[in-house]
Design a protein that fits this description.
Elements: E1 2-3, E2 9-11, E3 17-19, E4 23-27, E5 31-34, E6 36-37, E7 44-50, E8 54-60, E9 75-81, E10 85-91, E11 98-104, E12 108-111, E13 120-124, E14 127-131, E15 133-139, E16 143-146, E17 156-162, E18 166-172, E19 187-193, E20 197-203, E21 212-216, E22 220-223, E23 226-228, E24 235-238, E25 241-245, E26 248-250, E27 255-258, E28 263-268, E29 271-273, E30 278-281, E31 325-329, E32 335-339, H1 341-346, E33 364-370, E34 376-383
Parallel strand pairs: 1-6, 4-7, 5-8, 7-9, 8-10, 9-11, 10-12, 11-15, 12-16, 15-17, 16-18, 17-19, 18-20, 19-21, 20-22, 21-24, 22-25, 23-26, 24-27, 25-28, 26-29, 27-30
Antiparallel strand pairs: 2-3, 13-14, 31-32, 33-34
């Protein structure tokens, strides 16, 4: 590994100059970093500007801070890219301004990473400004985040803006808050997408205002989202149709799920209780139709745990089901059917909700994960006699 740390220059207030960054790279080509540590610098851990792809893995950008009450530019990782950006196993925590600030024209993919406890306050001429994003991304394409934590930040766990789809899975954006006596503005996750927005197995707990605020030009998918004990809404959405599959929205200061003007497709009931203003707004929302989220999953997503009658738990999505499973239909044409996952997915007459005997070989309810090309991976299947 390569280390860039403890780079500092401070000039007193009569001629204030704050300088010192760990790594500064500008290139018309690509940037690839692996096993880099850029921590404990005055300004930035690393600032990267590339005309091509930027890829970072197994690297640390922590505790870059001037610790000066009247000045802040203290960021773990700054990325400006004219193509795709990919981060895997990256940590940018304990900085004052941003854990990571990413502006890219291409797709941004982040997996297995941490952006925690980024918090900073500056006071100039008696005016106090609050700072601290775990992760801020602006993309002219898509954003995919998987297996990532952004907790304990001051303003936002994650603030994501995309001119395409946004997909967040298996991640935690919790405990975002300002300090005692300061304005309550901390929000777990803020998403603005011109396409679809998807949250799957995302935790949004104990944030000072909303657990998540999601605005999308397309559909919004909330699959097994946990949003509890947030100061205002568990999740607030703005779009035309929101699809909800399970999850929990409880103990929030206002609504568990605030749909605004969005219609609702309730694919599987969510657990909702003890929300201050009501579990869902409006209490009787308009209904929209079931849709399949066609966006690809985030790179490096964790495989779901499968309960398929005792089969071995798979280690990757390509081995989601081990062998075959059987179910029996009822009614006038009683029969026993054995089929594989691939055979099921190939049958385009199947939907993704509850089944009756007229729908085909599966009776009951299953849990699914959206995949590429609009296919569905089955996570759990409950067969009824």
């Amino acid at each position: 590994g390569v280390s860039f740390y403890d780079t500092r220059l401070l000039v007193n207030a009569s001629g204030v100059v704050y300088s010192g960054y760990g790594l500064f790279v500008t290139t018309p080509s690509t940037i690839s970093l692996d096993q880099v540590t850029a921590s404990d610098n005055f300004l930035w851990g690393a600032s990267l500007d590339a005309g091509g792809d930027i890829a970072i893995s197994n690297s640390l950008f922590n505790a870059n801070t001037t610790a000066v009450p009247s000045f802040i530019d203290d960021t773990g990782l700054i990325i400006t890219g004219d193509s795709d950006v990919a981060l895997n196993n990256v940590t940018a925590s304990d900085n004052r301004l941003y854990g990571a600030l990413i502006d890219a024209t291409g797709t941004v993919s982040i997996s297995n990473s941490n952006f925690n406890n980024n918090r900073g306050v500056v006071t100039v001429d008696g005016v106090t400004t609050l700072n601290g994003h775990g992760l801020k991304i602006n993309s002219l394409a898509d954003i995919f985040i998987d297996s990532t934590n952004a907790t304990g930040n001051m303003l936002f766990g994650g603030q994501l803006t995309a001119a395409g789809d946004v997909s967040v899975s298996n991640s935690n954006f919790s405990d975002t808050s300002t300090d005692a006596g300061q304005s309550a503005v901390g929000k777990g996750l803020d998403i603005v997408s011109t396409g679809n927005a998807s949250l799957a197995n995302v935790i949004l707990n104990n944030n000072q205002t909303n657990g998540a605020d999601v605005k999308a030009g397309g559909d919004i998918f909330l699959d097994v989202v946990t949003a509890t004990n947030n100061g205002t809404d568990g999740v607030a959405v703005q779009n035309s149709c929101t699809h909800v599959f399970g999850g929990e929205y409880s103990g929030n200061g206002q609504y568990g799920l605030n749909l605004g003007n969005s219609a609702l497709d309730l694919e599987s009931p969510a657990t909702m209780f003890n929300n201050g203003a009501g579990n869902i707004f409006p209490a009787s929302p308009a209904v929209c139709t079931t849709a399949v989220n066609s966006g690809p999953p985030a790179t490096g997503s964790n495989p779901p745990v499968v309960t398929d009658g005792g089969a071995t738990t798979p280690t990757d999505l390509s081995n989601l089901f081990v062998g075959y499973f059987t179910s029996t239909t009822t009614g006038p044409d009683t029969s026993t059917v054995t089929m594989s996952l691939n055979e099921f997915l190939a049958d385009n007459t199947k939907g993704i909700a509850d089944y009756s005997e007229s729908d085909g070989p599966f009776i009951g309810r299953f849990v699914y994960v959206h995949s590429t090309d609009g296919l569905i991976y089955i996570v759990g299947l409950l067969l009824e006699d």
